[in-house]
């Protein structure tokens, strides 16, 4: 809209400039300008029209009028304005009509095409927004970098250095521990060479069970039923040994594995399938795995080579009788005779004041028992012969005894 208004103003200004130039041309080219008559009064008669000028001058005036009307600036003016101006220059109405009719008809002025102004481009706004976002990112990154280098990085470095120092200290302690353990092991080795050898494992079965070779014979010798809880009192080593002997008889001398051994025991002793029997089975398992007389191997017998297996390892058990104990030495025999000759101390020791302590305890018990007894007035007892109970008589005797002891002790102290 601003462009259309500016074009219109410019066009009107050019028209005004052209009209002023045409007027100057007519005024300069007219050699005989028409005299301007003085103003006449209103009631005076109208003067007669002036005589027409010579033909040469009129022809020249008409030529100038035609040239004036052909100017582009004048052609845009209104016809009334043109007639008025030509009449002022001395043309008659007839000449004005002739000159005006000779002029070609002007085409209507077509205003310049006006197109809607395109919307402003968003590129500057987009570039400004991107620049702003980039500035924010750069500022934030700079701030984070500053915070990291000034605050976080020193603490991270300090933490890593502290961890390295702790690791170095722990490694030094571990080296010292290894050195001390090596020194201790060397000292123990040197000292253990002087110490006597440990006594080998010795176990002696009960005599009545040592000759049994089967579980049934063992239960008969112990006079125990296989379904009673008395089975828990049977020697566990003897029971496991007899079970292995039973299995060898039925398997051509092969040793049983753990599952076969306990299945045989559960078949021979039904008590093991009960809840209490499970506890006894745990005892049997501990005896089997901790007693040196039971040796485990990967082969069922010494003639069978074990085959490597990827699954669970199966252990076969064998009973190795312990070596017979050596005869006792002369020193052991003498010590045994001495221990048998020394009288055994009594389990119950009595002190000299045991009787007095017992009396004080009885009196305390009596006082505690009668503290909350039913109250009986003292006046009711006066003059009445009330028999005392056995407990009261006993307390009376104890009080008299204590009184005599105190008096005697006081007398002996004064004599000394």
Automatic annotation (TrEMBL):
Location of the region described as Disordered in the Swiss-Prot/TrEMBL record: 28-60
Domain Peroxisome membrane anchor protein Pex14p N-terminal intervals: 57-101
Annotated Pro residues bias: 34-54
Domain of life (superkingdom): Eukaryota
InterPro entries: Pex14_N (IPR006785), WH-like_DNA-bd_sf (IPR036388)
Protein's recorded name: Peroxisome membrane anchor protein Pex14p N-terminal domain-containing protein
Organism of provenance: Mycena chlorophos
């Amino acid at each position: 809209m601003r462009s259309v208004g500016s074009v219109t103003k410019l066009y009107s200004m050019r028209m005004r400039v052209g009209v002023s130039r045409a007027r100057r041309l007519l005024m300069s080219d007219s050699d005989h300008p028409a005299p301007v008559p003085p103003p006449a009064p209103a009631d005076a008669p109208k003067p007669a029209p002036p005589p027409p000028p010579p033909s040469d001058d009129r022809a020249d005036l008409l030529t100038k009028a035609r040239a004036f009307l052909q100017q582009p600036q004048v052609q845009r003016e209104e016809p009334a304005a043109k007639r008025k101006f030509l009449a002022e220059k001395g043309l008659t109405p007839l000449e004005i009509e002739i000159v005006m009719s000779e002029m070609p008809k002007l085409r209507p002025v077509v205003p310049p095409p006006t197109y809607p102004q395109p919307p402003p481009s968003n590129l500057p706004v987009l570039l400004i927004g991107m620049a702003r976002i980039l500035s924010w990112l750069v500022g934030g990154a700079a701030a984070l970098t500053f915070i990291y280098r000034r605050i976080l990085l020193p603490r991270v470095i300090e933490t890593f250095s502290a961890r390295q120092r702790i690791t170095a200290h722990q490694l030094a302690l571990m080296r010292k521990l290894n050195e001390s353990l090596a020194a201790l092991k060397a000292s123990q080795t040197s000292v253990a060479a002087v110490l006597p050898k440990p006594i080998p494992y010795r176990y002696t079965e009960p005599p009545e069970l040592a000759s049994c070779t089967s579980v049934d014979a063992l239960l008969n010798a112990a006079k125990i039923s296989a379904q009673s809880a008395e089975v828990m009192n049977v020697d566990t080593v003897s029971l496991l040994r007899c079970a292995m002997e039973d299995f060898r008889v039925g398997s051509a001398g092969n040793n049983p594995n753990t599952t076969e051994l306990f299945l045989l025991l559960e078949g021979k002793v039904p008590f093991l399938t009960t809840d209490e029997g499970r506890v006894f089975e745990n005892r049997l398992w501990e005896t089997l795995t901790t007693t040196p007389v039971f040796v485990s191997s990967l082969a069922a017998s010494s003639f069978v080579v074990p085959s490597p297996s990827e699954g669970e390892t199966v252990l076969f058990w064998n009973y190795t009788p312990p070596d017979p104990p050596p005869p006792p030495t002369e020193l052991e025999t003498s010590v045994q005779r001495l221990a048998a000759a020394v009288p055994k101390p009594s389990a119950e020791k009595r002190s000299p004041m045991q009787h007095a302590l017992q009396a004080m305890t009885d009196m305390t018990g009596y006082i505690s028992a009668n503290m909350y007894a039913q109250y009986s007035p003292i006046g009711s007892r006066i003059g009445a012969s009330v028999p005392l109970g056995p407990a009261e008589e006993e307390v009376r005797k104890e009080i008299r005894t204590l009184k005599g002891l105190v008096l005697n002790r006081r007398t002996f102290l004064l004599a000394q």
